[in-house]
Description:
This protein has 257 residues and is an alpha/beta fold. It has a single domain (6-254), classed as Divalent-metal-dependent TIM barrel enzymes (TIM Barrel, Alpha-Beta Barrel). The chain contains twelve helices and eight strands. The protein has helices spanning 16-22, 31-35, 40-46, 71-87, 98-101, 109-122, 124-130, 150-160, 171-178, 181-186, 213-221, 238-254; strands spanning 6-10, 26-30, 51-55, 92-95, 133-136, 165-170, 191-196, 227-230. It has an eight-stranded parallel β-barrel with strand order 1-2-3-4-5-6-7-8, surrounded by five helices.
Amino acid sequence: MERSIRFGYCCVPEETALYAEAGFDFFECNASAVLCQDDCKERIAKAALPCLSANCFIPGNLKITGDNVDRAALMAHAEKVITRAGECGIPTIVFGSGGARDIPEGFPAEKAAEQILAFVQDLLPVLEKSGVTLVLEPLGIPDSNIINSVGAGASLVNRVNHPNVKLLADSYHFYKSDNALESFAWNAPLLRHIHVATTPDRLAPGMQEWDLTEFFSVLKHGGYTHGISVECYGSADKKLDAETAIAVLRKTWDAID
């Protein structure tokens, strides 16, 4: 029987056998560590799981906001990552990139927001051509000083108003800096990817007392059917992390009516 939801784990391609054995459905790679390398296609093809998403889109040294934006370098990097994702069959790129999008001290927040909007709009042609969806990730404070809530992320996604630009929600960041359940539920139709971990320590689900029932209920009742990735600080025992997490995730999801 086909599962109603797919669970993944953030890792490198060479670790995927462990997560496949544990029962995960896909993996999420690091764009800088994988897609920016010339052997990315070979590494992803050899993985034991399909790669359905990539994070770490823009490195912190390539600023999107402020007075010192190297637009040529920024766009070259972004277009390279998106193009390679398309070539590797990766349908989703996560746009968190807190260091790149952070507002420099003294710079107007409104202007920074417009710069982020313009950057995303400039990516639309390559997103369309590559068949890749960019999902905007709200980040908690202090991981970023802009777009810190699901509502703020939804506002930007709605302004772009394009099928290749959607929203991500991360349970760790949500409960750390947002916690607005009404906004989360209202904007659920925009969601195309999810990250989960425990709060406050960002461990694998089940490795710290933390109940995802409330978070998953919003998703399930909102009709969410896309991927959910574990993005966490791993313990020394990756096998234990993986086996514990997948058991907790499936049990929690399946228990919701």
